[in-house]
Write a structure and sequence with these properties.
Chain lengths: ~400, ~180
């Protein structure tokens, strides 16, 4: 049995039993971050904070929300919005955070792509990150069902219909997912369960995996430089903080991280208080009606790019293109055949690939929002073909790349 | 060595028990997600076909889905007769022709809108179009609107129950089973 002595303080009492000093050292004060980074490296913490905002606001919404097709709409739009003290605050925080979290995820993703942070031992960070993106997408979709407005209902109808697999006509599968011929009580109840329990559990697990995957390869830096973390840490601990290429996660890095978080929170609450409407589709303020499609169905802005890849093609081709778009990002570490881990600007053709991909996704997003006719249909079609073409070209252009 | 093989056996025995349990629980979970018997049992709609007017779309409800009923005017029947694919989609009751189908776009399930002046359907979601018998005229929808199982009963039409007329439509590939 371990030997315990009379504790000299609460800290010592806990330390003897739980090793809290060791935990603190391993997780914080001796977890090393490169110095050569910029504000884009704070997006991980910004995401963690946004997730916390979603969790806390969600708890309060959960106390009054009713997952019943007859009462769901009023429990949100009347009870929470008008009766519950500060209910509007939780709803607007929840709605705005659900939208903004995707903006930050995209910035976080494209930062990783630009600096090559998915290569040379960092593949699992990328893959676990993309799994988190899938989990967040499912969380966003299931949450969008809950107010049971017109957009909830019809988005639920359209998205569950994707599972019929086009010409496969797996209507049984669609009805199984819904628990009914159309989205109804069984559907609302099960998506409520997914939204408040199963998917958040998966997200928490994946966040653990994402952080764990970061541990051995460490955080990337602005030059993709391979740092000997042990040697640099030793330099730092011996007092040569200026000469060392690394700093401690706590307090050094965290103080800068929280500075960015501070700016972010000002922007976030500006949106919550003055522009919450951008995250609230007016169509969803009509109660769900299975006999009336809204004139124009479109998803929230963060799904528009993949929706636009589905849209210009016939059903089967569209579904294949959509499935391609959904999974292709996961394979990025293996499709990039270049050994270079440097910023895109120093990588020859990949520089153009990066900006072409970013611009193409913005074009797809814009075209997904407008009605599918005339000029917009054509632009959407070419943007979708460009997206697929860029991914097919990636292995070839990175193979040609010279060693930097 | 003896210990290792004994542990190996215990491991396999546990694996077998856990495997059976896992398969059984997966089956139970699958069944719990199935539509309830009450949901499946509900679902016969009877329509009185004498009440509909020429070229006026009426939306009925069957199993939670919108059902389009469009009584064809004389000129619409003339147009439909030029194309066997069109005329075969119509249901003849008491000398009149009716288009009866599930009003959900076969692309992704939006409700197409009817335009009486041009006598066609336009789906606002992805721009698909159908003619007056709900045969597809512009992609992305892969096929015309689906026709629900029906049975002609005098001047009434029962949805949800099959009949020789409906079976014939299925056999000829005019509609898919709904």
């Amino acid at each position: 049995m371990a030997h315990f002595t009379k504790a000299t303080s609460v800290h010592d009492w806990l330390n003897q039993r739980m090793g809290i000093d060791t935990v603190r050292r391993v997780m914080a004060t001796e977890y090393w971050i490169p110095k050569n980074i910029n504000f884009l490296w704070a997006m991980g913490m910004v995401l963690a904070i946004t997730f916390a905002l979603l969790l806390v606001s969600g708890l309060f919404l959960l106390m009054y929300y009713q997952p019943n097709v007859a009462t769901a709409f009023d429990s949100v739009n009347y009870t929470i919005m008008q009766e519950v003290g500060y209910g509007w605050l939780w709803r607007h925080v929840h709605g705005v955070a659900a939208s903004v979290v995707f903006l930050i995820i995209y910035i976080h993703m494209f930062t990783g792509i630009y600096y090559g942070s998915y290569k040379k031992g960092r593949e699992m960070i990328w893959i676990s990150g993309m799994l988190l993106f899938v989990a967040f997408s499912a969380e966003a979709f299931s949450g969008y069902m809950l107010p049971w407005g017109q957009m909830s209902y019809w988005a639920g109808m359209v998205i569950t219909n994707l599972f019929s697999g086009g010409s496969l006509h797996a209507d049984g599968l669609v009805e199984w997912i819904r628990g009914d011929y159309v989205p109804a009580q069984a559907f609302l109840n099960r998506f409520f369960m997914l939204h408040v329990l199963l998917i958040p559990l998966a997200i928490l697990g994946l966040i653990g995996l994402h952080f764990g995957a970061l541990r051995i390869p460490h955080v990337n830096n602005q030059d993709g430089e391979e740092i000997d973390f042990e040697a640099e840490a030793a330099k730092y601990k011996s007092g040569d903080k200026a000469g060392s290429k690394v700093i401690a996660f706590v307090n050094d890095f965290m103080s800068k991280d929280m500075m960015v978080v501070g700016f972010y929170l000002i922007f976030f609450f500006y949106l919550v208080f003055f522009h919450y409407d951008f995250a609230m589709d007016p169509v969803n303020f009509d109660p769900a009606d299975g006999l009336k499609t809204p004139a124009h169905i479109y998803p929230e802005w963060y799904f528009l790019w993949s929706y636009e890849i589905l849209r210009p093609f016939s059903t089967n081709v569209g579904l294949i293109a959509f499935a391609f778009a959904q999974v292709i990002f996961v394979f990025l570490p293996f499709l990039d055949r270049s050994p270079n881990t440097v910023p895109a600007s120093r990588r020859g053709l990949f520089k153009f690939w990066f900006w072409a991909m970013l611009v193409d996704m913005i074009v797809l997003t814009a075209m997904g929002k407008v009605p599918p006719s005339g000029m917009f249909s054509t632009i959407g079609l070419y943007a979708a073909l460009t997206f697929i073409g860029l991914w097919i070209a990636l292995p070839f252009i990175t193979k040609l790349e010279k060693k930097a | 060595m003896k210990d290792i093989s004994r542990r190996g056996f215990m491991g396999k025995a546990f694996g077998a028990v856990a495997g059976v349990g896992a398969v059984a629980s997966l089956y139970a979970m699958k069944r719990s997600w199935d539509p309830l018997p009450s949901v499946k049992a509900a679902g016969f709609t009877t329509l009185d076909m004498s009440e509909y007017k020429d070229n006026e779309l009426v939306t009925e409800k069957w199993r939670g889905k919108p059902i389009f009923v469009l009584k064809q005017s004389a000129d619409m029947v003339e147009t439909a007769k030029k194309n066997p694919k069109d005329i075969d989609r119509l249901i003849k009751i008491g000398g009149s022709y009716y288009m009866v189908c599930v009003g959900l776009c076969t692309h992704l399930g939006c409700i197409p809108g009817y335009r009486p002046e041009t006598k066609d359907f336009l789906c606002a979601c992805h721009g698909g179009m159908y003619d007056a018998t709900a045969l597809v005229t512009k992609a992305p929808p892969p096929r015309g609107l689906d026709i629900p199982p029906f049975k002609i009963d005098g001047t009434k039409l029962v949805l949800g129950e099959s009949s020789p007329e409906y079976e014939k439509m299925l056999a000829n590939g005019i509609t898919l089973k709904v």
